[in-house]
Amino acid sequence: MTWQADVDEINRQKKLAEQMGGEDSVAFHHSRGKLTVRERLDLLQDEDSLEEIGVLAGSAEWQGSQLESLKPSNTIIGTCKINGRKVAVSGGDFTIRGGSADANVGNKSRFIEQFAIDARVPYIRLLDATGGSVKTFEKIGRTYLPEGAGAHLGIELMQLVPVVSAVMGSVAGLPAVQACLCHFNLMVKKTSQVFVAGPKVVEEATGKAITKEDLGDERIQVKNGVIMNLAEDEADAISQIKRFLSYLPSSVYELPPVVASDDPTTRKDESLLSVIPKNRRQIYDPKKVLKAVLDEGSFFEIGPYYGKSRVTGLARLGGMPCGVMANNPKFNGGSMDIAAGEKTIRLVELCETFHLPLVYFADEPGFSVGPAQERAGIVRAGARVLTTIHNSNIPYACIVMRQLYGVAGGLHHREKGFYRRYAWPSTHGGSMHIEGGTAIAYKREIESADDPKAKKEEIEDRLQAISSPFRNAHAFGIENMIDPRETRPLLIEFMKDAWRLLPESLGRQSGLSYTP
Asked: Are 390 and 452 within one domain?
């Protein structure tokens, strides 16, 4: 006498669950250029590493003691391994009721979130769900008052383990909020959308018809910074998820993973000697600097379409992961506007949470100026960035490549914790630009001159003559002026020093409340 018949029944019911919404629903899903949730999981996991939880959860129809049919829950949860490391994952199954909440069974999402917290493993959401439905009211026989949408676990997760949200289809309501309750998110070009409420709800509320694409595709949500990265297709989305997680520890209780690097630690790239133009008004590509300094091929950019005046991302130096940011003079002169400030805060908080040293390649002309920025609140936004950097404790290194002006320029400096600064000979700075400040500081002298224009130019030339970084270095205003080609070896030495200190910071960071 054995339990083989019951084991066979378990396997039969698993196969029923694996059929998802049925052949027709799956075919319709494919016709829209989308993978099913199970196909996505196959791309994500190391081969045969998925351990699904609650696979039999669903709406069952019984004939006596025999199961006639099983409509599975439209949320799949479980664990799998990515490059040998365990992660927790949940995925919405759009082939069943469009992933809406009324087709869920129990609260599988809450279960796997708690598992990720308890097991201290990264958590990945593959979002493809429309959220709540009025059919739920009929299903439970009443309406209800919302109670925080069960978001407390999602918020707690962000303080403890890396969280990734991938928008893989049309996402509305709670799933749309979950798309932002994470450290990194992305969406897929042409097949995914994010919105608080879908087109029909918008039409009822506003009287205006709109398509789901015009309401919340990549043209809106990537540009406005709601979604950080854009994937060309679903395979690219999965690849980006894997790459992002490769820089981070499994939880705040571990150090970030170090990998072997074939890129020589002593490499000195000749291009760095001429990458900054002699003409201060001429722009350059900061990504050429990153390529010349960071481990070859290691830079992973985050938020390339938002706040373009600042480049942010993750990289490695000597195999050790770090956060990286750089001003980009190709956009708004590299000055910090509100969007660039928000990107900076996100990166600093990510590094602070997961013990990543931060490297800043600085060329900051100051906060972005003008009526539009003032109306948008640039002063308050700048104060938030200043506070975030001041309160950070991560090892922080700055390479001053060119200019540092005003309060925004001062953000390159931190007065506490392990901090190093190196300046290239192209460095210059001050409380304000000579060109703009001369007309203010010497207003009376200029206006009383026989030739005001000539007098202004004379004063500017005089001030430019004393703006040499060597004068600053003589007063110890610059600790280390370096040959730009020495940047990589010096930063790797900084990383080695930082790595000795990082174990002291393990655990949840007191006072840090990560915000999306």
From this structure: no
